[in-house]
Amino acid sequence: MTFAPSPGGRPAGPGIDPGRTPAMTEPTPLEPDRPTFRDMMNRVVAAGACTECGSCVVVCPHRIIEINAGKPSKRPNAEGAADHCGVSTGVGCDACAAVCPRLWPREPHLRDATFDGERGYEGIFGVYRHVFVARANDAAAPAQAQDGGIVTALLAWARERETIDGAIVAAVGEDDAPCFPTPKLATTVEQIRASAGSWYTYCPNNLALARLAKARLARVAFVGVPCQVTGLRKMERIDPSLLLKPGKSVTVTARQRDCLRGPAERVAFSVGLFCSEVFRPELMTERVAGQLGIALEDVAKFNIKGEVLIQRKDGNVASIPLEEAARDYQRPECRHCADFSAELADISCGGIGTDRATVVVLRTARAVEIWRAFEASGRVQVWPIEQHKKAWNLLQMLSRKQRQRPPRAAGGDDAALAQYSPARAAERALQDLRDSGRAEPEVQACLDALYRGGADRPATPSALRGQPIPNDPGDPAPGEKRRLAPPPTPQQGGASPGADLIGLEADTQSGPAR
């Protein structure tokens, strides 16, 4: 493979505001330095912002990092201070920091790299091609399924037709404490169906990515909350040129590359779950078991509908005010999250503003293709988002509220930061390698190891924005109240891609409660 840098440098690229072209007088967006292990340990872990997703552990090629009390830390036999990695400062790596959801690039800065040429519409809840409401047919969804049962039914159908050979899910197994799920590799339809339901305590699903190769799984579906989807997407999209360094052997470079990219290469598609927060374990042990007197083994599932609902296996339902649960039991790490709707997933789902139904957001062409085939199976009912204005409004309001939540220093949605460009990152790393005087045959050997002989060579992503949400009134004038965009019509992406637009009204008059 021949990889020649383009002449001259490139501007940092466009900012993150969807639907806008920066004026000539606006400052050039800033592109931060590539994050390092030290950055991750100080600016994320020590700062209390770590999501506990485990992505850093999954991609570490040198077994420097382990999970200790939920957080990444150096293994006891690793030399140096807690924020020092000898590989990072020596031959070079920092794959861990590259996939950290809390370091640049974050969700808004990854849109170009993730949705290159695939943006339909774009707004406060990210890029989307279709948004609608759906419910799995009773035969397709188990009783413990959450809201419309869509995620479970979709995964089970995909496994049956061998679109996937397994799924990464959170589930409470026989060896788990009641109400505390752990990451699972579900390889049968029965295991997928048994994983239905949400528990609202954190489960580091990304850790299961490390088991895919040994399990010989090559086409899994990944289900996770937004921070977990971001870690996965960074494994897929962050360019491996960050691993290039003068003096490093081709063998080490290739091994580091496989650790960085390998897990994501075994994922067929991702499903992101709407999430504003998850709760500390004490919600279960102190509030539910202690104060409410409900044995955790008697709990069938949890849900949030303006309050925390605890459904018991005998059919009785108890509740806790959501304001109280969020105030007293929210994980403090969740306050650093700006992504409510899993903006980087292929498919995003959540049960907001509906009764026994799910809001579905299809973001990529891959998602549209999968959904069309799923809907054609007859296992799902769909309704246009116009019929669920409450759900549409909540999607906008909750996404905006969360976008504004992180501390400013965390850089969650800083318009001054640039879009991430894999091609630009590769050009700079390659130029540094050539400037070091390394012989050209060695340079090409390193590039072949990184890009599989040219197949994975990065291209400059399209900077074209998706169309703004139709009829979005935009930012209000000073002192005025923000007005929400009305629900899009089916012709504007407000319906399932499998819907028959001609007969839509006749087919969708009877929908789930709003």
Tell me what you see in this structure.
There is one protein chain. The chain is 29% helix and 15% strand. The protein has 514 residues and is of the alpha/beta class. The strands form 4 sheets. Strands 7-6-8-9-13-14-5-15 form an 8-stranded mixed β-sheet. β10 (299-304) and β11 form a beta hairpin. α9 packs across α10 (250-265) and α10 packs parallel to α16. The longest helix is centred in the middle third of the chain and has 16 residues, at 250-265. The model is unreliable at 1-25 and 501-510 (pLDDT under 50).
Structure summary:
The protein has 514 residues and is α/β, with parallel strands linked by helices.
Notable features of this structure?
single chain; 514 residues; alpha/beta; eight-stranded mixed β-sheet; 17 helices; 16 strands; 29% helix; 15% strand; globular; disordered N terminus
Strand order, main sheet: write it out.
7-6-8-9-13-14-5-15
**Overall 3D form:** globular
Report mean pLDDT, rounded to a whole number. 88
Helix content: 25-40%
How would you classify the helix and strand content by structural class? alpha/beta
Radius of gyration: 23 Å
**Which parts are unreliable, with pLDDT below 50 for 5 consecutive residues or more?**
1-25, 501-510
Note the beta-strand portion: 5-15%
The end-to-end distance, rounded to whole angstroms, is 56 Å
Specify the biggest β-sheet: 8 strands, mixed
- The helix count comes to 17
Beta strands, count: 16
